[in-house]
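Trying the structure run again after the queue cleared.
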Amino acid sequence: MFRFTIRDVLWLTALVAMGAGWGIEHIRLNVINRALVQQQEAEQRIARLRAKELRGEVIIGREP
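Done. Tokens:
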């Protein structure tokens, strides 16, 4: 049977805490990145619609 010292438990706690912190940060950055990509795509759609409007093209319905 294994016997764990307080030092072993502290190392394991630190390792688990670092892994959990990394995982949370990774998820948070993915959410932020996805939001920025969606914002950029929306801005590009708006720019295309404004360009069509400036050329005098009729804008009807949704743009793909």
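Residues 6-55 form the longest helix (50 residues). Worth checking whether this holds up in the mutant runs.
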